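Methods: example folding runs. The two proteins below were folded one after another, and each record is reproduced exactly as written to the output file, sequence line first and C-alpha cell line second.
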Amino acid sequence: MFLRYGNYSHAAGECTLSSITREGLFTENLQQYGTRERWTIDGRKQIADQGTTAANQAAMTVVLNALIAAYNTNFQALGFYDDGGNLTTHSMTSNVRIVQRPSFPEGRGAEYSTFRTYQIIAEAQTSTPPAGGQKLTSWSETVQLIGGGPKVVYLSCLTGPPQKQLAHQATTFKASQTGRATAVGRYPEPPPPLWPYDELIDARERTLELPPDSTQQRTTTWSYQFESIAEMFAYPTYRSVF
C-alpha cells in the first residue's frame, strides 16, 4: 500500500497511519452538523546507498525537499491506495489541511544517511448539508418597553434640597426589539418589526457574522427601535430550532 497527496506519491510501505480520529461537530443545541477527521502519518524515507556519506546526504536532501514541497500546499486529496492502485476506505478528498508539515522527530544514529524518519498530521472537516439549505440551531429575542409616563425633573436650589417638579404630563412610549439567531447552511432571516408603523427606520440594525471556522454555521443579529404616543406591548418572536 502507498500514500498519495495531490500528485505526490510515497513509495509502497513507506508510510503508516499511526492514528485516525473522527470527531463529531455539534451545534450549541447538540445537533451534529459535521465531522473532523485527523490523520497522524509516520514515515521513513529510504534511499539507495550512494557509496559515500556526502553523496548519501546530498541525495537525501533532494528527496526531503520534494517531500516538504509537496506538503506546502493545502486542500489536496489525501488517500491510501492498495497494491492495485485502488483508493481504500482511508481517504480525505476535500478540505484537507496540513496542520503539521513534514517534521523530523528523530535525529540520532544514522538518520540523514540512507534513511530519514518523518511525521505529518493532516486534517479535514466535512459538513452535512441541511435539508432545504438551512437548519436553525439557536434563536433568542428580547423586547424592552420604556417610558410613557410623566416626566419629572429635579431642580437644584441655592439653599436647601433639590426641588421635584413635573416637566411633562406625558411622554412617548419607546420600545426595542433585539435578537440573535444561528443556522447551519444559510444566514437566518430576522423577524419583521413588531410595530412597523412606529419603527424608527434610521435606527434599524442588522449584522451578519462569519462562522468561526470552516463550518456552515451562520449568525444574524437584529435590532429595531420604536416610539409611539400609544402604549406598546408584544411578546418576543418565537422560532423553533431543530
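Second run, written to the same file directly after the first:
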Amino acid sequence: MNIALIFAGGTGIRMNSNAKPKQFLELNGKAIIIHTLEHFERHSHIDAICVVCLESHIGHLKNLLKHHHIKKVKWIAKGGETGQQSIFNGLKQINKSLKANKKSIVLIHDGVRPLINENLITKCILTTRKFGNAITMTPATETIITEGKGNQIANITDRANCRLARAPQCFLLKDIFEAHKKAFADNKIDFIDSAYLMQHYGHSLFMVEGPTENIKITTPMDYYLFKAIYEARENAQIIGI
C-alpha cells in the first residue's frame, strides 16, 4: 500500500492568526488542509491517508472531510508536542493496521504544503520502490552561508551543490517506523524532519526534484504567494493556457 501521512498538527504561531491554525485558513472557501489532501485523494496510486491533527480540531477536520468528499482518510491521529512526536503518532496508527505489509510506503507531507502535484507524488513512490526512500528537494537559488561567531560569516557554500529539502519525504513503512522507535527509546525528540532522523540512524537518502512553488505556508507572505499561484493556475485553465 501507498499511504500519505499528512501532518497538520501545528498551531500557526508565525502566521499571527489567533482565530485558526494555519492549516485551517481558507482560500476560495476551502481550508488549506483540504487543498493539500485533494492531491492525494485524487492520485490513483495513493491507497489511504492518515492525518495528524490538533486534538482540539479533530471534530472540525472530520466535518471538512465529509463536506469535501475526502474518502481516503482512514486514520486521524492526535498531534504531539513536536512535529517528530506527531508523525510518530501517525505512524503508530498506520503500523497497527498494516504491520504485516513490509512493502508499504509512507509519504510524509505537510498539511500546509498545498502546491504539490500528481507528478511529484508519482516520482516519490517510484523512487522509494527502487531505492527505499525519496526526499523531495529543490535547487538552492540564493547563496548559502554558515554563521560564525561575532556576527561573522564562517563559510560560503557553492549553491550549485546545495538543495532545499521539501516534502513529501517518503520511506518504507517498516524503516521509518523503526527509526522513530529508536529515537523514542533514545529520548531524541528534536529531529527537524524525518530525513534527518533517518540519516542519523544510518540510512542513505535519495533525492527527487520537486517544483519550486511547492512551498510550506508558514507566514502571511507564504499565504499570499499561495493565493497568487493558485489564482494564476485557475485563470490559466479558464483561458486554456
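Comment on the second run: The radius of gyration is 18 Å.
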